[in-house]
Amino acid sequence: KRETESGRASAASDLEEEGAPAAAVFPESGRGSSDRNRAVSSRHVIATKPAAKSRWKLLVPGVLAIIAILIGLGFFYHSRNAQALTGKDSILLSDFTNTTGDPVFDNTLKKALAVSLGQSPYLNVVPDSKVQQTLKLMGKPPETRLTSDIGREICQRAHVKAMLTGVIAPLGNEYVITLDAINAATGDSLAQVQEQATSKEQVLNALGSGAGKLRANLGESLASVQKFDKPLQEVTTSSLEALKAFSQADELRERGDTLAPVALYKRAIEIDPNFAMAYARVGTQYLNVGQADLARQNFQKAFELRERASEREKLYITDKYYDGTGQLEQAMQSLEMAIQTYPNDYPPRVNLSVVNQALGDFDKGLSNSLEAIRVEPDSWYGYVNAAYCYTALGRFDEAKALINTGLQKTTGALVMHGSLYYVALVQGDKAAQDREEAFIKDSPAFELQWVLANKAGLAVVHGQRKNARELYAHEGELAKQLGLTENQASVIQIPALMDLLFGDTSNKNKSVSQATAALNIANSPDVTILSAEIAALAGNEPQARHLMDDVNRRRPLDTRFQTMFIPVVEAILLLNHGEGAKAIDVLKPGEQYDKGTTDIHFVRGRAYLMNHQPDQAAQEFQAVLRLRGAYIGDPLMGLAPLYLARAYAQQNDGAKTRAAYQDFLALWKDADPDIPILKQAKAEYAKLQ
């Protein structure tokens, strides 16, 4: 899953993506007074009338002496504040004290402050994941209000140097905002600013102004503040109500919830249609539940509004945009730029790991996920993605050990148990499967993604067609209840694909009709290209080409569609005409990206078999099987052993051929007996005896 946030604190925990998980948020230059080290805003300095000349001459010596003292004190104060925090120190945001009586400010101002401070590459705001984990160790619920006392205890436990408190108070019809950064160990004030808002609508503007001044007072260079300090209302929203909905959604998201935050993010968009990060967040949540087309639409909208985002958020949105368009190289460049600009952020590392996984580079994916854990050990995103990479690499004990560490250190228990469930599936550990399923069965979205989808896929892998149909039907009903149309469409397609892969060609037209019915539910490019593959396998070339052309038009820049998914359908059509060599050529563009995709290896292997190149064919089917830990429920995992046996047979290697047939028949020992390809395999094996 993708984690999908870029930023620190809320900025770090708020900017997250796609991986299978996913899950945070994200200022202003030296505008206004040049005296950034004053304890109060320059607007509170009272002007005085000039004194008479006669009195001025008498006062000159004394005034000069006072000025000298003040300059000295000012220099000391500036120097002290310049060293108040270093780039390695962290600062915790406590909850605002709201004495206005208006609940709209509750939680909202803290989120806005996190966004504003999150623009800084210098300040390290403690992420929500670390706060929630520390509260857990303190025996307090994750929604505990962070008062000054609780905040200081968190700082002491988590070795955080500073804490930032905020107060908003009424002043007639206006509002006064006070920000006070204190040394968590001593309670001494490190820096304080105060801003006044003339109306409720100006509160966010005043808060952003104060945050910019505070950054300089805490030691960030003026050049850095000026470069990374857009007005708060330009990087989030000018609406307090929209920001409140956004904050509530982020809280749910940080706990590993996938669907519940979507309604709140949409609420934020309804209030402010120009809220760029809300679109990006909705897109990430949709991507993590398999709604790729809805994700792309929201990423596109966020990208169009990216000028209403901070530099940190822009990098996050840009990654999501390229992810949505399928431009993997550009997505990786954007993520690497984010890591370079904000080296203490973990979300870009998680998202880079997800791209690595999509390309089948699980070693790099593991490295980036482990680095994300190093940067932020209290967030579940790194653990889940690293464990998936370990599992894909066959390092099961390390995967389980890491997840168990994550269970102790993070608040993402539901996602962690889902990961343990997946490892148990790959290992075939039924007792562990039952144990972990008990933890996640009460979450419909997790039951859909982790349990039903994998169980149905494994039934296909083992040739249990009837059982698979029942599981897919159950999955489809649940997807419909949850409003997940792409999931609903896919569970109509896969049984049709299964029949064709199993050699059941008696109902080709029915398979194509099922694929067409799926398009009536969701016609996303992902659903469309699978329908094209089904049509090609069924021999319906006009339908396959029509759908291919449609996808080609809609996904012109998509790396995987253009180099693998569309060529796979073309290659199947060529195989239908007995043109194995041409099919091999059609698949060549995908060679640099295909390490993590089973379809292209399987079809290329078939082409090599047709072209009487068994050595190369065997390598392709082995490449499919090497991805078993990554895609345990992929139907091709059940067929690759049989086709590998056929490749060995072409090599005239009797021992390997018999062993491969035996592997296939053992895998299918509980298969439905009437499946045509099983009958063929038994007949082929019998001839070897």
Reconstruct the topology from this structure.
Layout (H helix, E strand, L loop, with lengths): L1 E3 L5 H5 L1 E3 L34 H30 L7 E4 L3 E2 L9 H10 L6 E2 L2 H10 L10 H11 L3 E10 L2 E10 L5 E9 L5 H15 L4 H6 L4 H4 L4 H15 L5 H12 L4 H13 L3 H13 L6 H15 L2 H14 L5 H12 L3 H14 L4 H13 L3 H14 L3 H15 L2 H11 L3 H18 L3 H18 L2 H17 L6 H14 L3 H13 L3 H14 L4 H18 L3 H7 L11 H13 L3 H13 L9 H15 L3 H14 L8 H11 L3
Describe this structure in words.
With 689 residues, the protein is of the alpha/beta class. It contains 33 helices and eight strands. It has four domains: 2-8 and 256-442, Serine Threonine Protein Phosphatase 5, Tetratricopeptide repeat (Alpha Horseshoe); 90-235, TolB, N-terminal domain (Rossmann fold); 443-556, Tetratricopeptide repeat domain (Serine Threonine Protein Phosphatase 5, Tetratricopeptide repeat, Alpha Horseshoe), CATH 1.25.40.10; 557-689, Serine Threonine Protein Phosphatase 5, Tetratricopeptide repeat. Helix 12 (292-304) packs across helix 13 (311-325), helix 19 runs antiparallel to helix 20 (430-440) and helix 32 (654-667) runs antiparallel to helix 33 (676-686). The model is unreliable at 1-14 and 16-82 (pLDDT under 50).
Broad shape? elongated
Largest sheet: 6 strands, mixed
- The level of helicity is 55-70%
Low-pLDDT runs? 1-14, 16-82
CATH fold descriptor of the largest domain: Serine Threonine Protein Phosphatase 5, Tetratricopeptide repeat
